[in-house]
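User: Quick sanity check before I run a bigger batch. Here is a single chain. Can you write out its predicted 3D structure?
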Amino acid sequence: MPPEMAPTRRLRRVAALTAGALLGSLSLALVLALLLPASLSVPLVLGLMALLVGALLLGLAIAWPSIRRAALLREAIDRSAVRYAVFGRDRTLLDHSPAHDLPGMGSGPVPAGTRLDDLLAASFRDDPLAATAIAGQIAAHEDDARAEYERNLPDGRIMQVSKRRLAGGEVARFSLDITSARARDLRARAIHEGVPAAIWHLDREGRTIAANQRLTDLLGGEVPATLTESGLQQLGSQGDGPFGLPTGREVEGVLPARGEAPERRVIVTTSPWLPGEKGGERAVLMLLDVTRLHAAQAQAVHFAWHDPLTGLPNRFRFQQAILQLTAARDGGSVLLVDLAGIRAVNDSLGQRAGDTILSEASRRLREQLRPGDAAFRLGGDEFAVIAAGLRTPQAAGAMAGRIQRALAAPLDLGGGGVPLRASIGHAHLPDDAEDAEGLHRAAALALAQAKRQGNGSVVAYDPELGERVARRLALREQLMAAVADGSFELAWQAQVDARTGTLRGAEALLRWPGGPGGPISPGEFLPEAEAAGLMPSIDAWVLEEALRQKAAWTAAGTGPEVVGINISPATLRDPEFPARVQATLVRYGVTPEALEVEIPEDVAARDIDAIAPVLNELIADGVRLSLDDFGGGSSALAHLLRLPVDQVKLDRSIVEGLPGGARERAILRAVATLARGMEIPLLAEGVETEAQREALLAEGCTVMQGWLFGRAVRAEELVAR
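Assistant: Done. Predicted structure follows.
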């Protein structure tokens, strides 16, 4: 029996006794009133009634605290979250809290005396297996072993039910709504299972209490009984937390391979010791699998230091290796290897074919290394080899020869064998340099010289190479100053009618009289100017000065009809150049027909698509075009068709072979015939002898230029002839 029912029963007994006493007293008073005379019966009845009232009041005073406590207890139980119902030994409902969820109960009250069997029958009214269900429920009610269970209500609530057999054989059932608590448990479980970390609950002895699925997966499908059995190895110093781990801080660990699970890298964090559910203490470990992250980091480091195409160490690793070489006692050699023709392969066969060549070249290069040597890809088609202990040019040259022979084996790309040709430059410690930068620079100078020599040359560093570079750098600096100051001059070479000696035109030739150590020839300073990006500025100066001089001649009523200027490829590709020419012509009052722009034939052959729009615009503006060096090896009829030039200049190599060279005479005859057929005037330059003049005249070439008719001179000397 619930404790709150004892006072109630006592109150009921007191009320019953009081009512019995009252009835007995009333009966006694009635008997006395009938038997005794009125004079005696009235006082006696009044006294008896007074005594009875006093007794009732005294009994009420004595019972009031119990009555009050029973009422308060009943109100507290009715308002609490715990609900109860009490059934007698015959399963009759004796008492229940108002909100108790009993089977078959509706919204109205359930009268006392209702049997559990009737409640169940009402609850399973529509169930075809009602008898079986009712029998099961009654068996569960009578089963004292089933003291705790959960019950799901139709409205979705979940009740936690506790059942107790009382001393008198009654059954008390207490229920608590655990819907919210169960929802919280489900959310916690979802978080527990959904976090990306493995969670492991361990007791003080390191025994497994609980774990989520991620830990099971991390450990190969089975969680070990203890932490020790997992083989977890902490990387780093011990901490003061559970199992020697630091609390509140991440540490790295290693889980060895277990079954089919490979070795794993993990980040481990631990809680402090926490109180357990049944006493004792526990700790919660969280393990985050970072194996893939470690692999990705290792791969990123590899890509940072290696070329992704060939797998060779890259330029950064080369710089480190060359520093290590210079720090070594035995010295060594650096070989720089440049593959030829990769761009042509990319253009003709595609980028994939070029990548195949680079990969194959790197493989062949590695095969020629000695133990301790290293190969690198510096970028593009340039490779490097560092050979420790290889200190002499002869030894490095022998290695370079082996590399060249290995690369020379044809590589089949589907269109026939493609040989790999390489230019190699090498330098050595300690003879050629004192530090890493100097050694690399020396090898680079040797490679540059090998590339200039062509045909897969091998060049060892020579101090003269450094001196040449120093001279070129000094020349470049002075060139920049000359461009800024306008320190150039124009020399004019006459173009004459070879039959009469009449001046027809003049070519403006650039001169630099104030170079370092005196005048510098155009063949020396123009390549440096082009390499330094100075040609657009120089071309602008030449255009300005040539038209200024033409305007001066015109004003004096003298000078050639046409002035020719040489323009660099960089300027010929500039879409703004025609507008600049037109503006300069207008400023000096020179007609467009008086200006002739000379185009080297090899430039036209190489950049015809890039320069064609600019040249066509110049032609449309009336400027004359002259195709220079025609017939020297790169000539093509297509150039004449796409670029309707006003004049063709015969290459001086043909003129030099006249009159005796059969090959030169054949080329002259073909070019002259072509020029006549296309009605394009032909001019020969480099004419130095009468025999050459006669041979040219015999083929119909009448306009000539060369030392036979005068060297390049100042403007005033040209018109004073």
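The longest helix spans residues 38-79.

User: Great, the batch can go ahead then.
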